[in-house]
Amino acid sequence: MAERGESSEAVMLKKTEEEKLRKGKMIVGDESKAGYEEEGKKVKLVTSDGVTMEVEISIVKEMEIIQTFIGATDTDDSFIFPISNVSSHILNQIIELVKGEYDQELAKKLSHDELKEILVAANYLNMKTLFHFIATAIANVIQNKSVEFVRDFFGIVNDFTEEEEAELRKTNAWAFEGVDED
Amino acid sequence: MADMISNFSADILLYILSFLPTKQVVATSVLCKRWNLLWRSVPSFDFCIGNENRKETYDQFFHSVFSFLRSRDRDQPLLRFRLNYFFNSFDPTIRYSYSAIRDTESIIKKRIEDAVSGSARIQHLDLSLDLYIVMPSVVFTFKTLVFLKLANITVKNIPFVDFPMLKILHLNCVLFSKGLDLSQLLSGCPNLEDLEVKHILIHGERKFSRLYNLINMAAKLFPFEIVKNVKVLSSDMFRQQEWIFDFQNLVQLKLDNLYIKNNWVELLETLRHCPMLQTLAIGYIDKITFGSSAEGHEEAVLPDPQSVPACISSHLKTFPSFDFCIGNENRKETYDQFFHSVFSFLRSRDRDQPLLRFRLNYFFNSFDPTIRYSYSAIRDTESIIKKRIEDAVSGSARIQHLDLSLDLYIVMPSVVFTFKTLVFLKLANITVKNIPFVDFPMLKILHLNCVLFSKGLDLSQLLSGCPNLEDLEVKHILIHGERKFSRLYNLINMAAKLFPFEIVKNVKVLSSDMFRQQEWIFDFQNLVQLKLDNLYIKNNWVELLETLRHCPMLQTLAIGYIDKITFGSSAEGHEEAVLPDPQSVPACISSHLKTCTLECYRGSIDELLFARYIMQNAKYLRTMKIKIFSYNGEKLNMIRDLSSCMKSSDTCKLSFHNYY
């Protein structure tokens, strides 16, 4: 998540051009899944950690924010889209999930931090199917877990006093009955 | 990650929370100040309660439901709504009278209507209530519904159905009033992709409109024409004559309760109509003939390779079956991995420690060409597995617990018959042959299912080597006609069919799906628990009662499925059934019977008569349990009839349950 929000997109782009020269190209995507008239077409995305990734058009099509860009600008293959909120690690995870046709088994392998970062990325990229998929995966993780677990999952600091919390628990007492506080 | 939480806008949090049970959603009010009031805006309602036995539990549940509805922010529309409960309407401690039922019905209906009114954008609705509850008709105005699941509910007075967005429809135990039918409901769901229909009465001659977009279907009693485009089909009805269309898109097929005759040829013919099939699952198979060739029956003939259905030769990837740990795998690699881990465990464990328990269960898909196809491959695999099992258990002369479920092609390693310490032996899908002599002096539990005995050996020989057997279960075993069985003096539990009764006179527990009165000529002096399934009743239970005279100590009687019961016999001029008069009631009924269960009560006069007879004559009866099998509204009448029976035992509790 380095430098997120610090650099303007233009600066980001320049920086990543240099990175690209240094690191070489990272090619991602599966040729066999590419679509009809745009067969094999890839779109270059620059991640928050400055990696340029070539991503299949079939995957980029789910990213409505990029689609808006493509629609708005007269682009050619050399155009590079900055996605300054998404790291290369998370983008790779996203590509795996989309290619895996949103298999719940894949979601189970993700860490809590990865789940949250992918959700933020899906929201930012406006990937509706991915967003729904990860939101339900997160709901599955926290379902029927204790208040403490949920606080920990979302990194919430309890800013209630003990008395305030006890009072709140009394207000909706039914919601706390028969719940294991493990 | 420290600032991650700040990246979650309230909208994102609300979206996540909308997939959680409402109780948990409300509990998030104590997480922190930012979350304190968030729960009030969550666009979902999700309350479930199971089969509770205290009225207070239901009262609390509905209190929670109503208090949530009162305090949530009603400007936030509900997008998801789930209310599932099972109301035990037959339990007198919960609610009993018709007026109570009506009151509850009207309150719940009102609350549901209140809750969802103004939620014209609702997408996901899941109601599992009680057959006495009529679905609020407001549901039929929800044109944005994508997912609709209804269970245990009555649907009536619907003028017109229009669910243009509905993709998923699951119906289980839904009672349609005369005006409306499943066909009408479906005609209003043109974009349905997933349909599941269980326990629904479909009126005979209705016409269904074609469902062009259907992908998944799990339904029975359904005309196939309308679902020709499905990709996934699950059915427990299979009649070859209905498979007259090509299912061009079908990739996954599950057939349950299959009745196979004519050596699978019919099924194979049917598969010709499924050219793209990749996954085939066969569930329970009715009346399969095991070991038929031993009886001079022709070797089963399957079509020759030239005429193998195209889907089998070209597409079939999976042939899973039920109940087997690694049976559902479709890749040779998965089996290889499985056996790799088995064998690597065996290699690396400390072989000085003898194995006391050994279980290996798998289902090997011998029909899948990618796994193994040729007989030589089968032989190879067989010999490897056999060798590994022998290796694994050799030197384990102290093994006590052995559970093998393999493949009929696998011959059980004969080393098993040297395990004199065996206490528990469970064999399934295995061939047993070349056994000179059986000696399991410690064996107490023997469960056999689908075991093929070679000509030399028979079940009778196996049993003769198990003098101390206490628990025997035998399923799908061919028993050669004239074998003599030796007496099993210690047998306590027996679940077996086609079995001579002489040898098991001492059992305490007997479960059988064969009942022939002429075989009950001994007294079962110890029998305390008897279950009879697939009972064929004629002559008005007299035969069964005569039989019970041979079970003087019986305390628990369960009657399962009854074959060919005469429905409404008196209506057809049939004489009123006559049961023996009270003087001649079998002693076990009048003196010992404590529990009686009718497991598949369908409400015929004969059944009522029997239930009444038991209740009138069993002086020590504590529990009379009736599992009602009924698709229609007859249930209440059955309850009423049964509840009005006189009981000679003061402590008898009459309880009703659903057969399903």
Describe this structure in words.
The complex is a heterodimer of chains A (182) and B (660). By secondary structure, chain A is of the alpha/beta class. Chain A has one domain (9-174): Potassium Channel Kv1.1, Chain A (2-Layer Sandwich). Helices cover 51% and strands 8% of the residues of chain A. Chain A is built from nine helices and four strands, in the order αβββααβαααααα. In chain A, strand 2 and strand 3 form a beta hairpin. The longest helix of chain A has 15 residues, at 9-23. Chain A is elongated and about 60 Å long. Helix content of chain B is 22%, strand content 20%. In chain B, strand 24, helix 14 (605-617) and strand 25 form a beta-alpha-beta unit. The two termini of chain B are 50 Å apart. Residues 287-301, 317-325, 366-376 and 565-576 of chain B have low confidence and may be disordered. The interface between A and B is medium-sized, with 36 and 32 residues. Chain A: Residues 128-175 form the SKP1 component dimerisation domain. Chain A: GO terms for molecular function: kinase activity.
Overall mean confidence score, pLDDT of chain A: 77
Question: How many domains of chain B, as an integer?
Answer: 3
CATH topology-level fold name of chain A: Potassium Channel Kv1.1, Chain A
- List low-confidence stretches of chain A: 1-37
Global geometry of chain B: globular
Question: Which CATH class of chain A?
Answer: Alpha Beta
Helical fraction of chain A? 40-55%
Order of strands, widest sheet of chain B: 13-14-15-16-17-18-19-20-22-24-25-26
What's the pLDDT, averaged over the residues of chain B? 73
Q: Strand arrangement, largest sheet of chain A?
A: 1-3-2-4
Largest sheet of chain B: 12 strands, parallel
Question: In percent, how much strand structure appears in the residues of chain B?
Answer: 15-25%
* Terminus-to-terminus distance of chain B: 50 Å
Using only C-alpha atoms, the radius of gyration of chain A works out to 20 Å
Category from helices, strands and their pairing of chain A: alpha/beta
The total count of strands of chain A amounts to 4
Largest sheet of chain A: 4 strands, mixed
The tally of helices of chain B reads 15
H and E string of chain A: HEEEHHEHHHHHH
- What's the total helix number of chain A? 9
